[in-house]
Amino acid sequence: MATLAGEITTAPISERVTNGAATGKPPIDPLDVSRADLYRDDVWHAPFRHLRAHGPVHHVASSDYGPYWSVSNYRGIVEVESLPDLYSSEAGGITLADFDRDRDVRMPMFIARDRPIHTSQRRTVAPAFTPSEMTRMAPDIRRRTAEILDGLDWNTPFDWVDRVAIELTTQMLAILFDFPWEDRRKLTLWSDWAGDIELVKNEETRKQRLAHMFDCGAYFQTLWNAKIDRPPTPDLISMMIHSDAMAHMEHHEFIGNLILLIVGGNDTTRNSMSALAYGLDAFPDARAMLEADPALIPNAVSEILRWQTPLAHMRRTATQDTILQGQSIKAGDKLALWYLSANRDESVFGDDADAIRVDRPNARRHLAFGHGIHRCVGARLAEMQLAILLEEMAKRRMRINVVGPPTRVAACFVHGYRTLPVEISRY
């Protein structure tokens, strides 16, 4: 069974279930990597290491999310992502949490749709993330990044997540949506409630989560109504209004796509920015190399995304019986694609995959943005935001020093940080 250090014994998988009879709790399978405590306590590495070595396609018979297959190695995830008709995003959604017909309200979003709807709706928002748009937005991102960094106190503890990561990403979302600036922290609130799938385990928090999603939808409906019959503008709401694929969405689908874009733009970049601070402090040799050679910044961005992997998994559902790496998958089976584990796959990234190496030659092979037709539409923007943050820190010779343990998100979907106490100093 799993020890306090998160290590795994070599007993057969069938014997590696903790007997909970003495406590009255259900037995715990230490290879059920959907357990929130693994991520809250940052002890997920050992069970995934065991799975990659001994059962990269492993069936979990019982979990808080029901039975599912864990796909934990790089090759297996690429195979599944390359066959979107066989492994559906729409049949069961994109997280391990199942849709409950009696308690939930379906809110379709294009990342959780299959072709052709996925293709047409994705094509609608893609123009917001083209290279020309990145060029247009870069000066403003740099200006706002500089203002935030210049507002920090040196050699004085503060929360990096709140002061830097949340503020930068929330500002960016407000610009993308043409969202009222004074209310931009509502985006953070909605993102936190939408991205935490642990909330569905409790009826009260499930209801609270749904209420927040409806608040989000009502607010954005007002913004939508204000742009109807107006000329096109380079924001996501206007792009939806002026598209054939999304102009006539029903309200729940509108909310679903908003939630997708908010979580995608907030949680992922925000947690990568926090990982940048935490990870470079944890690997001082990598930090020293980066400080000595800012030309490594583009590769360092890819490496930090690989090392953190801000969304731990995506879920797919088999549409027919098939074989995946020797395992018999049945139609309707749920598969969790653990990007978090694939980005530590020793067969791809070497025996030092748990470390940050800013000069790692294949860092760009990471799967933090997914793979195939569902690869993150905003990947370029996320990379640019991280690169500009590192560049502006380098201009100021700013070093982030972690001064206390982080508070981590206790969930198996969003992999991130609630708080991170730091001080900044010059090098």
Span of the ends, CA to CA = 45 Å
What is the helix fraction of residues, given as a range? 40-55%
Helix-strand makeup class: alpha+beta
Mean pLDDT: 91
CATH topology of the domain at 99-317 and 348-426: Cytochrome p450
CATH class of the domain at 99-317 and 348-426: Mainly Alpha
Global Rg: 21 Å
Largest sheet: 5 strands, mixed
Uncertain runs are 1-22
CATH architecture of the domain at 99-317 and 348-426: Orthogonal Bundle
Strand order of the largest sheet: 1-2-8-5-3
For this structure, what is the CATH homologous superfamily of the domain at 99-317 and 348-426?
Answer: Cytochrome P450
Overall geometry: globular
Write down the secondary-structure element order: HHEEHEHHEHHHHHHHEEEEHHHEEEE
Number of helices: 15
Percentage of β-strand residues? 5-15%
Give a count of the beta strands, DSSP E runs of length 2 or more: 12
Pfam families: p450 (PF00067)
Protein name: Cytochrome P450
Keywords: Heme, Iron, Metal-binding, Monooxygenase, Oxidoreductase
GO molecular function, one term: iron ion binding
